[in-house]
Amino acid sequence: MKLKVYLSGEIHTDWRQEIMTGAADLDVSFSSPVTDHAASDDCGVAIMGPEDQKFWHDHKGAKLNAMRTRKGIEDADVVVVRFGEKYKQWNAAFDAGYAAALGKSLIVLHGSDHQHALKEVDAAALAVAERPEQVVEMLRYILS
Question: What is the DSSP letter of 14?
Answer without folding.
Answer: S
